[in-house]
Amino acid sequence: MKILVLPCDGIGPEIVGAAMDVLKAADSTFMLNLEFDYDDVGFVSLEKYGTTLREEVLDRANTYDGVILGTQSHADYPTPEKGGRNVSAGFRIGLDLYANVRPARTRPFLPSNMKDGKTMDLVIMREATEGFYPDRNMTKGWGEVMPSPDMALSIRKITTHCSERIARRAFELAMQRNKKVTAIHKANSFHMTDGLFLECVRRVAADFPEVTVNDVLVDAMAAHLVRDPSRYDVIVTTNFYGDILSDLASELSGSLGLAGSVMASDTNCCAQAQHGSAPDIQGQDKANPTSMILSVAMLMQWLGERRNKPEFLRAGDAMEAAVDKILENPATRTPDLGGTLGCKAFGELVAKAVQAA
Asked: Are residues 285 and 308 in the same domain?
C-alpha cells in the first residue's frame, strides 16, 4: 500500500518524522509492505508554488491508500486570494473526508484534568464537510459576507446527506464499543439546522435497535463532560460543536497532545494530530509526537478494517500499546508531560517497543 506524507508547518515535520519512525517499525514487524511518497503543503508549498495547497496534491492524494498530514499554521497564512488555503479543509472537501474521528481517554498512569478521579473513554464523531465553516459550505464563494463595514454575516449549512452518513458511522462504531450514542445539538435555538441534524440521527438510530441513543444540548454537554465524561461512549455532532467539544475532552483526559485523530470518507483516510502547529517550539525537539503517532495508528486500523487486512489492525494496535508503554515511565515522557525526552527520542523508543511486540 502507498502512503502520501505531508509534513506541513511548525512542529509538523518533527512529529511526522517521529510517527514515521514508528510506522516504519510497524511496517517491518508486521510485513505491511508500505511505500511512502512525500510532498509539500503549507508554508513550504507557499514559498515554492504560491499556494499552501496545490490542486495536484489533492488529485494525487486520491490515488494513495492513506495520507499522513502534519500540523498547519493556518492562522498565519495569507488570505486565500494570496495563496493561503486551509490545508485541512482542502483535504476534507477535496477528498470528502466527512468523518473526523477523535477519541479521548484517560490513562491510569498519567495525570488528567478530571474531577474526583473519574475516567474517560469516548469517541467524538464530528461531521467535517459543512456547518459553520465559511470555507466548506458553498459550491462557489465564501460562507461569510459583510454587507456593510459594521455588519458581518455567516451562513451555516446542514444537509440530510451529511448528517445521516456521520450518524451511521457513529452507530456502527457504537456497535463495536458500548452501544451508546449521544447526539449533540442546540435545536432549541437552531430549530431548522440542528433540528434537521437531530431528525437524521433519530432516523438512523432506527436501524440500530441495540444501541441506546440520547441527545444533549451543546452547552449542557460542556458541563457534563467536565462533571462526568465516563457516562459517554460515542458522541456524534456537527462540525463546529465537535471541534470545540473534542478539544475539551482531550484536555480533560490529560492533554491535547495525547489523542489521535483521523479524517475519513468511505474510501479515503488521512491521519492528522488533534493539536496545532506550536511554532513557538518549532525546531527545538520539544514537541510531543503522541497525537501524531496515535493518528497514524488509527490510519492503520482504518486500512485494516476497510481493506480486510488483519496485519494492519495488529500494527495499529501495537503502535497504540507501544505509546502507552513508553508514556507509563515518567523518565521517558516529553517536557509537556513533565519529562525530558525529545520528540525524536520518544519516537525511537516507541518504534523499539513496536518491534518488540
From this structure: yes
Question: Domain span at residue 49?
Answer: 1-98+268-357
Domain contains 262: no
- Residue 202 C-alpha cell reads as 433519530
Active site annotation includes 247: yes
Q: Is residue 218 a contact partner of residue 75, using CB atoms and an 8 Å limit?
A: no
Torsion, Cα of 10, 12, 18, 19 (10° steps): 160
Q: Is 233 a catalytic residue?
A: no
What would the pLDDT profile of 242-282 be if each residue is shown by its tens digit?
A: 999 999 999 999 988 999 999 999 999 999 999 999 999 99
Tell me the β-bridge partners of 123. Answer: 103, 234
Examine residue 103 and state whether it is found in any structural domain, yes or no: no
| Digit-coded pLDDT (tens) for 115-147 | 888 999 999 999 999 998 887 778 788 888 999
186 is catalytic: yes
> Could you give the CA distance from residue 14 to residue 203 in angstroms, rounded to a whole number?
44
243 is annotated as an active-site residue: yes
Rounded (10°) angle between helices 290-306 and 343-355: 40
In-domain check, residue 342: yes
Catalytic residue, from 98, 133, 232, 241: name it: 133
Residue 291: inside a domain: yes
